[in-house]
Amino acid sequence: MAPIRAHNKTRTGCMTCRKRKVKCDEASPVCTRCSTRQLECVWSSSPSTSKSTSSPSPPPAPKVSLPNLAITLLDMEIMHHYSTTTCTTLCEDSEAINVWRVVVPHIAFQPDNRYLLHALLAVAATHRHTLNPTYPLPDTYSAVALSHHKLCLDYYPSDTSDSGVPAFLTHLLIGVYGFASSSTSVYAPSKWLTTIRSMSPDLLAQWPQFQDGPTAPLARIMTPQVIDPPVSMTNFPASVSTIHLAGPDIEEVQDIVVSAAYENAVILLKRSWDASFHADYHLLAASTLLTIASDSFMMLLREGRPRALIVFAYYCMMMRRMEKTWWTRKKWSEEVEKIETMLDARWMGWIEKSPLPPEWESDPNLMMWMFRQPLT
């Protein structure tokens, strides 16, 4: 029997190799064996002291700061739902869908952008809730969505000068969440609406960052250069176009500031109205009036001024036409009826009961498609 070959044991290697009873090459600061096996290389003392005291100490390994995120299995399921389903419902443009599916999550997982991640999960959970409100238990996903929405607002930076792209994306997702989750009238005071209106001025200076780079396809459908639906489809009501110049209580619009507020709101409504005929522009159509209209107009609306209510009634009619999109579904017809009860007889003729093209009214199949699409 051949004699056992003698070998020298090292007592100066790392603690990890000594515990595993393998030879350590004492490479600093991480030995080769630990590096190869991706093990934590632990030393009882600095590895440099086990060799020559004249060799310089290695620089400390850089510390990586990761966000302290409490991600649950349910959150992982919601993230999967977002990447496979929700992202495809936010527009129809294939390049923009790819931004929502790939680019947005990549940005959201950056350590400083946790507010965007929470906004994304809030929207996806809300979408999941609309598909099956009672699974696995009633309101499970809506509760998770609300939790992520609150965390989004908590972590949203007060200074967005260095957060242009993630702040823009968060702004859009908060709008989607607000529309989808709010059961009250959108012109009533609401935290989500106040939040996105307060974000808008700060984000305007950051638009070039959003318009360039990987989010460019999304920026393109948010700011189309020309919105040109067929003339027979637009049918923008003529009466509302001149509401800042005519109508009962004419003395109200003799105030230049008030008249300008109404005129600007009508311009924004017309822009939204045209955009609403394009599936890719639904987010633009839904958000333009509410986020860009002047504070003066929003105040007139909350005061219940007839002209402001009429403008908003047409906004509700436009939103009803976009109910094919899951996050825009509300009882828009009831909103119009409620507005009509708030107006006296002098204003009744200013709201056209059916501002849709005649061919739509006469085609029950088209009307069924427009107003009663199943959830997507």
- Report the mean per-residue pLDDT as an integer: 79
Would you list the SSEs in sequence order as H and E? HHHHHHHHHHHHHHHHHHH
Percentage of residues in DSSP E strands: under 5%
Rounded to an integer in angstroms, the radius of gyration calculated over CA atoms is 29 Å
Number of helices, counting only DSSP H or I runs of 4 residues or more:
19
Q: How does the helix and strand content classify structurally?
A: mainly alpha
How far is the N terminus from the C terminus?
A: 77 Å
Shape: elongated
Main sheet summary: none
Low-confidence stretches: 47-55, 61-66, 357-376
Helical amount: 40-55%
Strands, count? 0
Can you describe this structure in just a few lines?
With 376 residues, the chain is mainly α. It has helices spanning 15-20, 32-37, 73-84, 94-108, 114-131, 140-155, 164-181, 191-204, 207-211, 216-222, 231-234, 238-241, 256-275, 282-292, 295-302, 306-321, 332-342, 358-362, 364-371. The longest helix is centred in the C-terminal third of the chain and has 20 residues, at 256-275.
Describe the 3D structure.
With 376 residues, the chain is an all-alpha fold. It has 19 helices and no strands. α3 packs across α5 (114-131), α4 crosses α5 and α5 packs parallel to α7. The radius of gyration is 29 Å and the shape is elongated.
Question: What layout of secondary structure does this protein have?
Answer:
Layout: H1 15-20, H2 32-37, H3 73-84, H4 94-108, H5 114-131, H6 140-155, H7 164-181, H8 191-204, H9 207-211, H10 216-222, H11 231-234, H12 238-241, H13 256-275, H14 282-292, H15 295-302, H16 306-321, H17 332-342, H18 358-362, H19 364-371
Helix pairs in contact: 3-5, 4-5, 4-10, 5-6, 5-7, 7-8, 13-14, 13-16, 15-16, 16-17
